[in-house]
Amino acid sequence: MIVVMRSGCSKADVQHVVKLIQELGLKDHVIEGTDRTVVAAIGDKRHLDMGAIENAPMVDRMVPILAPYKVASREVSPEPSVIPMGQGATVGGKKIAVIAGPCSVESEKQVIEVAQKVKAAGADALRGGAFKPRTNPYDFQGLGEEGLKLLAKARDETGLAVVTELMSIDQVDMVAEYADVLQIGTRNMHNFNLLMAAGKTDRTVLLKRGWSATLAEFLLAAEYIINEGNKNVILCERGIRTHESYVRNTLPLAIIPAIKRESHLPIVIDPSQGTGHSYMVPAMSRAAVAAGADGLIIEVHPDPQHALTDGGQSITPDQFSDLMDSLRQIAPAVDRTV
Ligand code: PEP
Ligand code: MN
User: Strand order in 37-42's β-sheet?
Assistant: First the structure.
């Protein structure tokens, strides 16, 4: 249920409604819009009398939330959310956020070099996995805490926010200590305990869509994070599994307008995992921006042929710089900047 407050209501009026919601054993979620404040009451209301709330001072009306997802839905928050990524960068505003860097942190030289080059080309944040979710247990698993330290060093040198993957609950404190944004990977989208643990931190979460998850399941996963008190969630489409084999994953860009309709959360596209081929990355990045994406997360490696992970889908810093130039031409056509 959404409680729509009258314009001009005071903070005390809102707090009174919050208290009534909590007294009914429901979760409250206050959204202050430019025009109106609304308070969502989340939980099972079937046997509750909501009359007291309807009659509270400065309550305009109560509207049921129809979508299965609540706090992630556009019904609850009609205005798009601008989410902080750390280091002054945001995603969801007019400026398209570009997150770039290697698939995995491999060495100090590699990560610092990429960070400096993507920063010079105009990136807003640095990506890089220290803990890698590998399908094959004999593949490189990441440098662990050492990798996190190298990412923090790259942040110190460039001012870029750091986006890195969190794979399990026992890593939450360690990863949150070094990272600005916690990435939850496609394989963990359904790991509800991990989602809740990330929701208890004060770090922004970049949530990737499970490779076989529906849009509704994706938004419900985001809801697990928000319900723990962390409103800073960025959605990321990284491709889904289909029968098609000439790409690693099929990248469904139609999710961009769909998310814009269904949710207030920003949507970022990963054309690297989304295609699996570096030659496809520039075209799909441009298509994503043209389709209204709020950001991109792109794998960039100084020497893709010797990358320890995902070299085939990684572009070079020079290719990234050219891509940024072309995005600067496309963004104004959709009323955005890069
Ligand atoms: C990655 O970003 O390198 C990664 C492993 O992503 P995903 O979870 O989308 O496979
Ligand atoms: Mn990768």
Answer: 27-32, 37-42, 2-5, 59-63
Read off the DSSP letter of residue 170: G
Q: Return the best residue to mutate from 99, 103, 209, 268 for the ligand 1 pocket (most ligand atoms within 8 A of CB).
A: 103
Residue-wise pLDDT for 294-315, tens only, equals 999 999 999 999 999 999 999 9
Domain boundaries, the chain: 2-63, 83-334
Please tell me the CATH code under which domain 83-334 is placed. 3.20.20.70
The residue whose C-alpha atom lies closest to atom 8 belonging to ligand 1 is: 185
Least confident of 1-5, 115-119, 252-256: 1-5
Ligand 1 atom closest to the Cα of residue 104 is: 3
Task: Residue 4: name the closest of 79, 66, 60, 49 by CA.
Answer: 60
Percent of the chain with pLDDT over 90: 91
Asked if residue 45 has pLDDT above 80, the reply is no
CATH of region 2-63: 3.30.70.1140
Collect residues with CB below 5 Å from ion ligand 2. 103, 310
